Amino acid sequence: MAKTAREVPDACALRLPGEHLPVAHRGRGLPRSSRAGRPGLAGRGRLLRHRPLARRQGTGCPCPRGGPATRNRPLRAQGAAARRRGLRALRLRARHGPRQPRRHRGAAPRVERGGRRFVPRLRRLARARRARSLLRGRGRLRGGAGPSRGGFPGARDRYRFAPGGHALSLALHADHSLTDANTLGLPCVAERHAAPATPAELREALTLARRHDWLLTVLGGGSNLILPERLPGLVIQPAMARWWLEEQGDGALVHAEAAVEWHALVIALAQRGLWGAENLALIPGRCGAAPIQNIGAYGVELSDLLEAVHLVHLDDGREAVLSAADCAFGYRDSVFKGALTGRVVITRLVLRVSRTPRPRLGYGDLASRLDAEPTALAVAQAVCAIRREKLPDPATLCNAGSFFKNPLIDGERARRLLAEHPTMPHFPQPDGRVKLAAGWLIDRCGLKGWRQGHFGVHERQALVLVHFGGGSADELLGFAGEVAARVKACFGVSLEREPRWAGA
């Protein structure tokens, strides 16, 4: 009796593994069928992988995974094949979502090769592969890679790459907003931005900038800075934020990295009974920016306790250490605003503090708020209370603190002004000059609380210019120039701006 077409799959299924098919079926494959035996087309319209009969029936030993051609390949080739399979799986998952388990009965959900630990490794490999694909030769871009303006090598938001084509540990950001990175709240966009958290990442950023000839701008906490609408090149904002003590006799040396918040450091030292920095409490900004303008308040300046400044030269990455004498400190001035402007990045400060009580209470009404023998923490808290009464909080009203320096004039000129204004605050200096209070001069011109456009003079402290939102750097400079011009007309005294212009 001749066999029918429906009986052919059953005859094939009864053969043991390795036996040949009938001559009639050679070269034509198997008939498509889903009957018992060797499976054909089933499920969602694709051929399922063949498994030997003994394995399907639950008897016998499982066959080794992969044939001789797979097992005999070198380990490197096997690893490369596994990576390719993993990368394909990641691409499919990103495109179509996670794979759904099979709907028919008896099939277990698919297990990804290598388990959970394998997926992060594949992602790192994919990221490095994308980074290498962006570059050709020694850091040159492929055609069309990255935005056309500025030639920024990378995708839209974030990328990791090195000039040689290997993955970077440093993250670079394209068109990074710096509006929240300056206390004046001025709108600003950095063409490229990096926040190195280690010295090695800082060296990576400097090497990258030198290789691509990018303009470099170093940004700290943005509390004493005027930012333009756009900063070209690379903006480096150090994120190194450790500090530690080195005990020495009755005092200690404080090592503070650039991204340490200054006020937090002052309070931490005062809580430990260490004297020297308590009068400088509540000054906004980070330690890396403190030496630039030689911050000071209530009769104390940073130069009074600074021992050394660690820095890195931007042009060649060379590290150096400057002593306090090398910094050429003056009133709101230093070598970092002169010969070293835009040439170095400060990485660490070394301060000397003492355990012996040394309160300095001779400035303003500080002494009237304290006991006869105050602690360092009590002095710091009194300073904070006074500053909060007079100065607005940048978190609620954008400002850069004191916008003008207190002017220094010669003694003869000061005597003439005192004859006209006997109540004018004045502070004689060791060199014979006299320091005047810029806030008092602005107030006497009737400018306290004055507003023009998006900027104004603070209603409680005339030395502070505030930003109400929506303004620009050019508008701020025009407003500040008008204030200085009126003081010049009333008193003949020139006011100098304290915040620095970014990149200048």
UniProtKB/TrEMBL annotation:
Name recorded for this polypeptide: UDP-N-acetylenolpyruvoylglucosamine reductase
Domain spans labelled FAD-binding PCMH-type: 186-356
Record key words, sorted: Cell cycle, Cell division, Cell shape, Cell wall biogenesis/degradation, Cytoplasm, FAD, Flavoprotein, NADP, Oxidoreductase, Peptidoglycan synthesis
InterPro entries for the chain: FAD-bd_PCMH (IPR016166), FAD-bd_PCMH-like_sf (IPR036318), FAD-bd_PCMH_sub1 (IPR016167), FAD-bd_PCMH_sub2 (IPR016169), MurB (IPR003170), MurB_C (IPR011601), MurB_C_sf (IPR036635), Oxid_FAD_bind_N (IPR006094)
Function: Cell wall formation.
Family membership: Belongs to the MurB family.
Compositionally biased intervals (Gly residues): 142-153
Catalytic activity: UDP-N-acetyl-alpha-D-muramate + NADP(+) = UDP-N-acetyl-3-O-(1-carboxyvinyl)-alpha-D-glucosamine + NADPH + H(+)
GO cellular component: cytosol
Regions of compositional bias (Low complexity) in chain numbering: 32-45
Taxonomic classification: Bacteria, Pseudomonadati, Pseudomonadota, Gammaproteobacteria, Oceanospirillales
Keyword Translocase carried by entry: no
Cofactor names: FAD
Pathway given in the UniProt record: Cell wall biogenesis; peptidoglycan biosynthesis
Pfam families cross-referenced by the UniProt entry: FAD_binding_4, MurB_C
Residues at the catalytic site: R332, S402 (proton donor), E498
GO biological process: cell division; cell wall organization; peptidoglycan biosynthetic process; regulation of cell shape
HAMAP family: MurB (MF_00037)
Annotated localization: Cytoplasm
Region (Disordered): 22-116, 137-156
A Gene Ontology molecular function term of the record: FAD binding
Basic residues compositional bias, start-end: 82-107
EC number: 1.3.1.98
Taxonomic source organism: Halomonas urmiana
Domain of life, source organism: Bacteria
SUPFAM superfamilies associated with the record: FAD-binding/transporter-associated domain-like (SSF56176), Uridine diphospho-N-Acetylenolpyruvylglucosamine reductase, MurB, C-terminal domain (SSF56194)
